[in-house]
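ingest -> validate -> predict -> emit
validate: passed (alphabet ok, no gaps, 114 aa)
predict: started
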Amino acid sequence: QVQLVESGGGLVQAGGSLRLSCAASRSIVGINTMAWYRQAPGKQRTLVASITSAGLTNYVDSVKGRFTISRDSAKNTMYLQMNSLKPEDTAVYYCKAVTGYVYWGRGTQVTVSS
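emit:
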């Protein structure tokens, strides 16, 4: 079992940056895939970016070139560096871990003002 805790959200002006963290309760070395999702009010939760244990990454088109996903096995933590933020990036951001089971964190709010 894995507990995931997100942090780093907040209020930022358009064009600003935030770095989200997702801390896992155990080693992430054996976790095949970790990912960031987001859910805006009234909308479905959607994939933002994912990273495999081999370091392969995938991004939704709307964040390519602005967001960077990474993982640090020594710290059992996954990150999402978000630059050039836009109001449409406003959402609750969730981290997800897939080991054969699927685990979710509780989310962290990101609000981008125009």
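Residues 74 and 108 are 23 Å apart (CA to CA).
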